[in-house]
Specification:
The chain is an alpha/beta fold and 164 residues long. The protein is 41% helix and 19% strand. It has a single domain, classed as Rossmann fold, CATH 3.40.50.620. Helix 4 links the parallel strand 4 and strand 5. The radius of gyration is 15 Å and the shape is globular. The N and C termini lie far apart (41 Å). It binds adenosine-5'-diphosphate. The site of adenosine-5'-diphosphate has 16 residues, from helix 1 and strand 4.
Length: 164
């Protein structure tokens, strides 16, 4: 069975991510979406449990997709889920350098391959950080995120949520 592992911070998960999951699910028998704690990023807006719960709802229509949330090295997750490959989305050339470095490091550590799926131009400008910025100041993010995520963003900022 071919298993694709799509890891990310997903803080929050947006339509660009969803497009990659949907396309990956046509390439693999199973896609495992892993919400990760990224120690290089500032304190997340949504904690891992919140991100996992939102992800479960967002991919409910995709039977071959399952969610895990983890705070360990990605190659350990790849081993644990029996991943055939790590899947990453590419928005622009600017993503390429760090993605290439991570792919090479992961391959060096465990032999796991990484495949890149280029985003459609429709979503190439969508990034979690920008979505948070728009939502923080009350802007409409409904074109960029699934409805459940939009709802949680509004609730989070109403509670005075802050990710800085
Ligand atoms: P990370 O903390 O790993 O950068 P992100 O949540 O920002 O996590 O992204 C997870 C994956 O989704 C990465 O492979 C990233 O390149 C990809 N991605 C992010 N935004 C988009 C988008 N708009 N279209 C396609 N892929 C995207």
């Amino acid at each position: 069975m071919k298993v694709g592992l799509f890891p990310g911070s997903f803080d929050p998960f947006h339509n660009g991510h969803l497009e990659i999951v949907e396309r990956a699910s046509r390439l693999f028998d199973e896609v495992v979406v892993a919400a990760l704690r990224n120690p290089q990023k500032s304190a997340p807006l949504f904690d891992l449990e919140e991100r996992e719960a939102m992800l479960e709802e967002v991919v409910a229509h995709l039977p071959s997709v399952r969610i895990v949330s983890v705070s360990t090295l990605l190659v350990n997750v790849a081993r644990d889920v029996g991943a055939s490959a790590i899947v990453r989305g590419l928005r622009a050339v600017s993503d390429f350098e760090t993605e290439m470095q991570m792919a090479q490091m992961n391959n060096h550590l465990s032999g796991v391959e990484t495949i890149f799926i280029p985003t459609s131009s429709k979503y190439s400008f969508v990034a979690s950080k920008l979505v948070r910025e728009v939502a923080r100041f009350g802007g409409d993010v409904s074109a960029f995120v699934p409805p459940v995520v939009a709802k949680h963003l509004v609730a989070k900022y109403e509670q005075g949520g802050d990710d800085e």
